[in-house]
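Is INI placement plausible here? Inputs below.
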Amino acid sequence: MSTFEGSLTAPQGRFAVVASKFNHEIVAKLVTGAKDALRKYRVADDAIDLVMVPGAFELPIVARRLASSKKYVAVICLGAVIRGDTDHYDYVCKAATDGILQAGLMTGVPVLFGVLTCENEQQALDRCGGKEGNKGFDVAAAAVEMVNLLRQLP
Ligand code: INI
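Reply from A.M.:
I modeled the complex. Tokens:
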């Protein structure tokens, strides 16, 4: 039996980070976490491009464009959606989730889902460098792993 598993060794190629400006203070910390992980796994700073979008709803169209461009080995999407008084939250979460998944499936390029979907601001703060860690870091590490895994697969 052969087992395939992506390593966390530095992959060749460029990484794109797409980050939403909505809930900027939280997303900025996710971006910092993602950069920390990429640095930890020896991705050079000048091999990372950061693209800002208005909100999580806009992540998919940009992720798909970047993933289709053949310029990047992975696209890391970062955002934070926090529930308000209406069901707007549900629509933004669904659009972001479905669209980010589609961007990866349609292009074959790993497109990572680093969007916090939270009931309140505290949950988000806990996950962007607080007591629950930094989801941006985790997702960027997963991007490195996926690049290395996909390179091994037929
Ligand atoms: N965008 C977010 O990234 N997070 C949110 O919490 C959010 N809320 O709550 O409304 C949000 N809305 C904006 C949305 O992503 C789009 O930018 C906007 O609808 C324009 O298409």
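Short version: The domain at 24-149 is CATH 3.40.50.960 (Rossmann fold).
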